[in-house]
Design brief:
Order of helices and strands: HEEHEEHEEEEEEHEHEHEEH
Number of domains: 2
CATH architecture of the largest domain: 2-Layer Sandwich
Largest sheet: 7 strands, mixed
CATH superfamily of the largest domain: Fructose-1,6-Bisphosphatase, subunit A, domain 1
Distance between the termini: 52 Å
Bound molecules: L-MYO-inositol-1-phosphate
Number of strands: 14
Number of helices: 7
Length: 268
């Protein structure tokens, strides 16, 4: 299956699930589970089901890994594409009626990203890319910013779901805030990355996120001329992830590394 065909299926599925969630938003309070800093919605599971049904019909035999995997999570290999699905990214926003949420679907073959689609229903924005094509938003080409210094940058970030004031997220947030022109938290990793791809933000960093939060949009950043990099593995599928316009990548990475170093020294 070509990357373009994968993208078409991902777009169909993201639009179907996102449209369904939007139509059903009066049910946004129906929670299967409430955690201190997260919520698992009935609509999350229903939307995952919609995406899975479309993939199973149009890409039979492919593997699916979803945040809300209805069946058991599957893994791909070098010959079996893996569809990585976050049916509602920004679930807490959605549950409060904030418009910053999306459906994110990435397709990988082994370590290679083939295609990614991120659909934000409330703003009707569809971000897409294939490994051999441009990054687009509603069909218009995207390009990362040309901001070259952290002091001039706007950096998107997020605070780990397993919030613990003793852990580095607050310190990293503080370090980024004092060095960048602005730090922002909008609560949807996939949309954060799309803002980097669109040149509206210059970098995105978060720790404690999962592959489904970034699988589609990391490719979109890269195809928009930026850089996307997993900079750490926290275990249990939790990742530390940095994406940027490329120009400020190493400088932001240094800020994060320094906070980590100081923390380690203080504890040692
Ligand atoms: C969420 C992210 C958000 C992050 C949360 C969580 P979900 O994804 O997109 O930016 O801060 O920790 O990972 O759970 O709404 O799909």
């Amino acid at each position: 299956m070509t990357p373009q065909v994968c993208l078409e299926i991902a777009v169909t599925a993201a639009r179907a699930a996102g449209g369904y969630a939007r139509a059903q938003r009066h049910r946004r309070g129906e929670a299967n589970q409430r955690l201190a800093h997260d919520v698992k919605l009935a609509l999350d599971v229903e939307c995952q089901g919609i995406v899975e049904a479309i993939i199973r019909e149009r890409a039979p035999g492919h593997a699916i890994l979803g945040e809300e995997s209805v069946g058991a999570a599957e893994s791909g290999d070098d010959r079996t594409p893996l569809w990585i699905v976050d049916p509602i990214d920004g679930t807490v926003n959605f549950s409060h009626g904030l418009p910053f949420w999306c459906c994110s679907i990435g397709v990988r073959l082994g370590a290679r990203s083939l295609a990614g689609a991120v659909y934000a229903p409330d703003t009707d924005e569809l971000y897409t890319a294939t490994c051999d094509g441009p990054a687009l938003c509603n069909g218009a080409p995207l390009h990362v910013s040309s901001v070259a210094a952290v002091r001039d940058s706007l950096i998107m970030t997020g605070l780990d779901k397993q919030l613990d004031p003793r852990l580095p997220p607050f310190e990293i947030f503080r370090a980024i805030s004092v060095r960048a022109q602005k730090a922002r938290i909008i609560g949807s990793a996939a949309l954060d990355l799309c803002h980097v791809a669109a040149g509206r933000a210059d970098a995105y960093f978060e720790q404690g996120i999962y592959i489904w939060d970034i699988a589609a949009a990391a490719l979109i950043v890269e195809r928009a001329g930026g850089r996307a990099e997993q900079i750490g593995d926290m275990g249990h599928g939790r990742l530390r992830f940095l994406a940027s316009n490329g120009s400020i990548h190493e400088a932001v990475k240094d800020i994060i590394a320094r906070v980590q170093q100081d923390k380690t020294q203080a504890e040692g």
